[in-house]
Amino acid sequence: MSGKTVAGTVVGAGIVLAFLFFGARGHPAAAPEASAATASAAMPDAETVAYQPKTIRLVDIDVPGAPNATAGGVQGTVPGAILCDTYDKAMMVYDAYNTHWQETVMDQRSGGRYALIHGKPDPAPNPDDFGCVLVPVGTPMHFEMGHGVPVAAAHMANGDVVTGVTLIPLMTFPRATPPVANIPSTSAKPDDQGQSQQSS
Questions:
Q1: What is the pTM of this model?
Q2: Which pLDDT tens digit goes with each residue over 173-198?
Q3: DSSP letters of 122-158?
Q4: Inter-residue contact 197 to 189 (CB < 8 Å)
Q5: Where are the domains of the chain?
Q6: C-beta of residue 18 within 8 angstroms of C-beta of residue 29
């Protein structure tokens, strides 16, 4: 091989390397890692976007004040308190949870014979289907009884405040009894409550 050929090959290779290093416009070519880092920096980080708490009113009633109760639910049956726009809907959701629990227990105790006779137990209700909200156990709530039915504002873990009609047996209070008298209950009729109060 002649000296001109070797020299030409070396010079050509040097030009190619210089082009790759400086880029087509004379600037250093960006490393793939740097390009990826720049692209990711331009994307907003989901964790840095602060959640804006909402005020959700299922009823057009203000229930201001510090929490005086917590969502309790019924162990094994209702996994929290229920908030709806009407008392009837809250009772429907409550009854649906009870029906699901009762049928499931009967099917288990019968070894599956209940399902063969009556069909599979109803699934647990989805409060959203009723336009209601399930408040997880332990959630602080401010409760009032001045509207003929129990109304409460639940202070959710994400900062939302949800206000709606609720059921007293699904809340727990600092004292043994709720801070009001003559409250309707899902477990007793008004006549039963009067008799119990007279006997006490």
A1: 0.63
A2: 987 555 554 444 444 443 444 444 44
A3: PPPP-GGGGT-EEEETT-EEEEE-TTSS-EEEEE-TT
A4: no
A5: 3-48, 55-190
A6: no
